[in-house]
Design brief:
The chain has one domain. The chain has strands at residues 2-4, 18-20, 39-41, 52-54, 65-67, 78-80, 92-93, 104-106, 118-119, 131-132. The protein is 0% helix and 17% strand. The N and C termini lie far apart (36 Å).
Amino acid sequence: MVKTSMTTRKNMIKTTSMKIVINKTKKTNTMIAAATNKTKTTNRMIAKSRTRMTSTMIADVKNKTKTTSRMIAKSRIRMTSTMIADAKSMTKTTGMMIVKSRTRMTSIMIADAKNKTKTTGRMIAKSRTRMTSIMIVDAKRMIIPVRINKPTSIIK
Protein backbone atom coordinates (compact mmCIF):
# COMPACT_ATOMS: atom_id res chain seq x y z
CA MET A 1 0.00 0.00 0.00
CA VAL A 2 1.34 3.39 -1.01
CA LYS A 3 0.13 6.63 0.51
CA THR A 4 0.59 9.64 -1.70
CA SER A 5 -0.62 13.18 -1.91
CA MET A 6 -1.43 14.11 -5.49
CA THR A 7 -2.06 17.43 -7.17
CA THR A 8 -2.22 17.49 -10.94
CA ARG A 9 -1.74 20.48 -13.17
CA LYS A 10 -3.74 22.11 -15.96
CA ASN A 11 -7.11 20.39 -16.55
CA MET A 12 -6.70 17.70 -13.93
CA ILE A 13 -8.58 17.14 -10.69
CA LYS A 14 -7.17 18.05 -7.30
CA THR A 15 -6.94 15.22 -4.78
CA THR A 16 -5.80 15.16 -1.22
CA SER A 17 -4.86 11.56 -0.56
CA MET A 18 -4.78 8.17 -2.23
CA LYS A 19 -4.34 4.59 -1.04
CA ILE A 20 -3.15 2.00 -3.53
CA VAL A 21 -2.97 -1.74 -2.93
CA ILE A 22 -1.60 -4.17 -5.54
CA ASN A 23 -4.46 -5.69 -7.58
CA LYS A 24 -7.16 -5.06 -4.93
CA THR A 25 -7.16 -1.27 -4.88
CA LYS A 26 -8.59 1.15 -2.36
CA LYS A 27 -8.94 4.76 -3.35
CA THR A 28 -9.88 8.07 -1.79
CA ASN A 29 -10.82 11.12 -3.85
CA THR A 30 -9.20 9.68 -6.97
CA MET A 31 -10.05 8.02 -10.23
CA ILE A 32 -8.22 4.72 -10.74
CA ALA A 33 -8.54 2.11 -13.48
CA ALA A 34 -6.51 -0.89 -14.64
CA ALA A 35 -6.52 -0.67 -18.42
CA THR A 36 -6.00 -4.10 -19.94
CA ASN A 37 -7.95 -3.45 -23.15
CA LYS A 38 -8.55 -0.46 -25.44
CA THR A 39 -8.95 2.60 -23.23
CA LYS A 40 -9.87 6.20 -23.87
CA THR A 41 -9.51 8.65 -21.01
CA THR A 42 -8.81 12.23 -20.06
CA ASN A 43 -8.69 11.56 -16.31
CA ARG A 44 -6.27 9.88 -13.94
CA MET A 45 -5.47 6.22 -14.24
CA ILE A 46 -3.31 3.94 -12.13
CA ALA A 47 -2.25 0.63 -13.61
CA LYS A 48 -2.44 -2.72 -11.91
CA SER A 49 1.23 -3.08 -11.03
CA ARG A 50 3.85 -2.38 -8.40
CA THR A 51 4.26 1.27 -9.28
CA ARG A 52 4.82 4.32 -7.12
CA MET A 53 4.05 7.70 -8.64
CA THR A 54 3.58 11.32 -7.68
CA SER A 55 1.54 13.86 -9.65
CA THR A 56 1.09 11.50 -12.58
CA MET A 57 -1.44 9.64 -14.67
CA ILE A 58 -0.92 5.91 -15.00
CA ALA A 59 -2.31 3.37 -17.44
CA ASP A 60 -1.33 -0.14 -18.43
CA VAL A 61 -1.55 -0.11 -22.21
CA LYS A 62 -1.44 -3.71 -23.35
CA ASN A 63 -3.40 -2.76 -26.47
CA LYS A 64 -4.01 0.39 -28.50
CA THR A 65 -4.59 3.43 -26.30
CA LYS A 66 -5.51 6.98 -27.17
CA THR A 67 -4.96 9.68 -24.57
CA THR A 68 -4.22 13.36 -24.19
CA SER A 69 -3.17 13.08 -20.55
CA ARG A 70 -0.40 11.49 -18.53
CA MET A 71 0.23 7.78 -18.65
CA ILE A 72 2.59 5.37 -16.91
CA ALA A 73 3.05 1.84 -18.19
CA LYS A 74 2.74 -1.35 -16.17
CA SER A 75 6.20 -1.95 -14.74
CA ARG A 76 8.42 -1.20 -11.79
CA ILE A 77 9.03 2.44 -12.65
CA ARG A 78 9.49 5.45 -10.42
CA MET A 79 8.70 8.77 -12.06
CA THR A 80 7.94 12.37 -11.19
CA SER A 81 5.93 14.77 -13.36
CA THR A 82 5.99 12.59 -16.47
CA MET A 83 3.72 11.02 -19.03
CA ILE A 84 4.30 7.36 -19.77
CA ALA A 85 2.93 4.77 -22.17
CA ASP A 86 3.98 1.23 -23.02
CA ALA A 87 3.93 1.14 -26.81
CA LYS A 88 3.58 -2.59 -27.42
CA SER A 89 1.15 -1.75 -30.21
CA MET A 90 0.53 1.43 -32.17
CA THR A 91 0.03 4.33 -29.77
CA LYS A 92 -1.04 7.88 -30.53
CA THR A 93 -0.33 10.61 -28.03
CA THR A 94 0.24 14.34 -27.89
CA GLY A 95 2.11 14.18 -24.62
CA MET A 96 5.00 12.39 -22.95
CA MET A 97 5.65 8.67 -23.24
CA ILE A 98 7.90 6.35 -21.27
CA VAL A 99 8.39 2.77 -22.32
CA LYS A 100 7.85 -0.34 -20.19
CA SER A 101 11.25 -0.99 -18.63
CA ARG A 102 13.24 -0.42 -15.47
CA THR A 103 13.91 3.22 -16.22
CA ARG A 104 14.22 6.29 -14.04
CA MET A 105 13.40 9.59 -15.69
CA THR A 106 12.51 13.17 -14.79
CA SER A 107 10.60 15.60 -16.99
CA ILE A 108 11.02 13.68 -20.24
CA MET A 109 9.07 12.14 -23.08
CA ILE A 110 9.79 8.53 -24.02
CA ALA A 111 8.35 6.02 -26.45
CA ASP A 112 9.30 2.46 -27.32
CA ALA A 113 8.99 2.20 -31.10
CA LYS A 114 8.60 -1.56 -31.46
CA ASN A 115 5.90 -0.84 -34.00
CA LYS A 116 4.92 2.36 -35.76
CA THR A 117 4.50 5.10 -33.16
CA LYS A 118 3.30 8.64 -33.70
CA THR A 119 4.23 11.40 -31.30
CA THR A 120 4.67 15.15 -31.39
CA GLY A 121 7.13 15.27 -28.52
CA ARG A 122 10.27 13.55 -27.30
CA MET A 123 10.98 9.87 -27.69
CA ILE A 124 13.47 7.55 -26.00
CA ALA A 125 13.91 3.93 -27.06
CA LYS A 126 13.23 0.99 -24.75
CA SER A 127 16.39 0.38 -22.74
CA ARG A 128 17.91 0.81 -19.32
CA THR A 129 18.67 4.44 -19.95
CA ARG A 130 18.87 7.49 -17.72
CA MET A 131 18.11 10.79 -19.42
CA THR A 132 17.15 14.33 -18.50
CA SER A 133 15.60 17.00 -20.71
CA ILE A 134 16.25 15.39 -24.08
CA MET A 135 14.48 15.06 -27.40
CA ILE A 136 15.17 11.74 -29.12
CA VAL A 137 13.47 9.75 -31.84
CA ASP A 138 14.67 6.16 -32.03
CA ALA A 139 12.34 4.23 -34.33
CA LYS A 140 14.64 1.21 -34.82
CA ARG A 141 14.05 1.79 -38.54
CA MET A 142 13.85 5.52 -39.14
CA ILE A 143 15.81 7.85 -36.86
CA ILE A 144 14.68 11.47 -36.99
CA PRO A 145 16.20 13.49 -34.14
CA VAL A 146 14.72 16.97 -33.78
CA ARG A 147 16.80 18.22 -30.90
CA ILE A 148 19.27 16.34 -28.69
CA ASN A 149 20.62 17.84 -25.47
CA LYS A 150 23.54 15.58 -24.56
CA PRO A 151 21.94 12.24 -23.67
CA THR A 152 23.70 10.14 -21.05
CA SER A 153 23.33 6.92 -23.05
CA ILE A 154 21.20 5.61 -25.89
CA ILE A 155 20.84 1.87 -26.48
CA LYS A 156 19.28 0.93 -29.80
